[in-house]
TrEMBL record:
Keywords: FAD, Flavoprotein. The keyword Transmembrane does not apply. PANTHER family: AMINE OXIDASE, FLAVIN MONOAMINE OXIDASE. GO terms for molecular function: oxidoreductase activity. Signal peptide: none annotated. It comes from Coilia grayii. Pfam families: Amino_oxidase. The keyword Transcription does not apply. Residues 14-466 form the Amine oxidase domain. Its cofactor is FAD. This is Amine oxidase domain-containing protein.
Length: 486
């Protein structure tokens, strides 16, 4: 092996790209990325819709500041120039057919956000659902309002809870740990960069050797702690076998599969099998699903400065909050307006999570169009609202090489177990660490799980782990310094 180890990175999402490009920056020459699908990017993905390309995957920066390396990379590559920074007007309509007072909506939503965004520590076993329901009721009772206003307030607070579920990807707040964010690193405010996330993938791969990025190669087996002979008669401890029969021998493999894929993988994927503690972590952690429904209209039926449209159901309260598929129409109630209009046209994005997100994958786009149009007409009191001329819904749960959106921490689970998922595997035949199998991805980083920068930084982490293993210096870097492949 000497100073030129052979390294294979499995997965060309941001974790895999981060690991591979960082390895090249650190002086490793023999680095190959193997990707199961036909395109790099993973959960950063695109589609042509109407007059332009859109992000069908990640579109938010969780931390629009120079503390966030993804923000810095986007800025360096000029991908933030047409992003709309200002929040648009938030429009809320009631199922009784009237518009909810903007003043009331903003005050209540802000108060609800204060409840759900707190960083809790030392609350093992407690869940977000019970905490949110209890504190929402206390908030309502503390305000002197009429019974009718009270019901509107409860409906708005329920929307806050459902919006949180979209951020988390879970089916119910009762299933999410109250102290989910006890280790979370806050890098700043969120920023919607819709239509500008997917170009980052090509930018990051510009200098990576094209013949070292292998697409359409699903992996069926990862054999490690072995002794595999290559055509050059050299022995390697790891063998990666693809569906087409190709085998890649290496000294180290960096696995960046999504948590959803790790959950779905047969126990025979790894040989020897993963240790019991790592399999237990994979089983314990949650992996949610969020889908988007893109709706393109000939003409906008919403105000020019609108940033979102929300539909409030009169019979919902935080205590009854759920995303059961039989109630799927009630769970497609939050729509963001794609901006700027000059770039995207008249486009809304409907958001849904949990079992509802999975359910809409089984529906036709015509069925979705009809149901959503019916709701808009009812809530906005306008029977003339047209059907969209084009509909596109994402299907992240059905994607075989992703199987969902991002990880979350279930009630009763401490996020520290993500550290165990990140622990590398070394040979069991000798006492020295040789880091044969390494793990990266957003589910392996407890302070930034569920984020794009979490995925990227987890890839950097494993590259630096290998560099330190070989006694190579790891240059100190600021969040806004990015690796350039050599």
């Amino acid at each position: 092996m000497g100073s030129s180890p052979k390294i294979v990175v499995l997965g060309a999402g941001l974790a895999g790209i981060g690991a591979a490009t960082k390895l090249k920056t650190l002086g490793f020459k023999d680095v190959t990325i193997i990707e199961a699908s036909g395109e790099a990017g993973g959960r950063i993905a695109k589609a042509c819709f109407g007059k332009t390309w859109i992000d069908t995957g990640a579109q938010f920066i969780h931390g629009a500041s120079e503390a966030n390396p993804v923000y810095c990379l986007l800025k360096q590559h000029g991908l933030l120039t047409d992003v709309v920074i200002e929040d648009g007007t938030e429009l809320m309509f009631h199922s009784k057919g009237h518009r909810v007072s903007a003043d009331l909506a903003n005050r209540v939503y802000e108060a609800g956000e204060e409840i759900v965004r707190q960083q809790h520590r030392g609350s093992p076993g407690k869940n977000m659902g019970d905490y949110f329901a209890e504190n929402s009721l206390g908030l309502v009772n503390s305000w002197r309002v009429s019974d009718e206003e009270k019901m509107d307030i409860l409906s708005i607070l329920t929307l806050v809870g459902k919006s949180l579920l979209i951020d988390i990807g879970a089916q119910a707040l009762n299933s999410v740990a109250l102290d989910s964010w006890q280790y979370y690193t806050n890098m700043g405010d969120d920023l919607n960069i819709e239509g500008n996330m997917f170009p980052l993938i090509a930018k990051l791969l510009e200098d990576f050797p094209k013949d070292c990025l292998l697409l359409d190669r699903p992996v069926v087996k990862i054999s490690w702690d072995g002794s595999f002979c290559d055509h050059d008669k050299r022995l390697y401890p790891v063998s990666v076998e693809c569906e087409n029969g190709e085998k890649f021998l290496c000294d180290h493999v960096v696995v960046t599969f999504s948590l959803g894929c790790l959950k779905a993988a047969p126990v025979t994927m790894f040989d020897p099998q993963l240790p019991d503690d790592k399999r237990e972590v994979i089983e314990k952690l949650g992996f949610g699903c969020v889908n988007k429904i893109f709706l393109l209209y000939e003409k906008a039926f919403w105000e020019r400065d609108a940033g979102s449209i929300s539909l409030l159901w009169e019979d919902e309260t935080p205590a009854s909050l759920s995303t059961d598929s039989p109630q799927w129409q009630k769970n497609i109630q939050f729509f963001t307006v794609m901006r700027p209009r000059e770039k995207f046209g008249n486009v809304l994005i409907g958001w849904c999570t949990g079992s509802v997100a999975q359910h809409i994958e089984t529906m036709t786009e015509a069925e979705l169009s009809a149901a959503i149009t019916c709701n808009f007409r009812r809530f906005m009191g306008n029977p003339c609202i047209p059907c969209p001329k084009m509909v596109l819904r994402t299907q992240w749960h059905s994607k075989a090489f992703v199987r969902g959106s991002y990880s979350y921490i279930p009630a009763g689970v401490d996020g520290v177990i993500m550290d165990q998922l990140a622990d590398p595997l070394s040979s069991r035949k000798n006492s020295s660490e040789d880091l044969q199998v390494l793990f990266a991805g957003e589910a392996t980083i407890k302070n930034l799980y569920g984020t794009v920068q979490g995925a990227l930084l987890s890839g950097y982490r494993e590259a630096e782990r290998l560099s330190q293993h070989y006694g190579r210096p790891v240059p100190s870097s600021t969040p806004c310094s990015s690796p350039t492949a050599i």
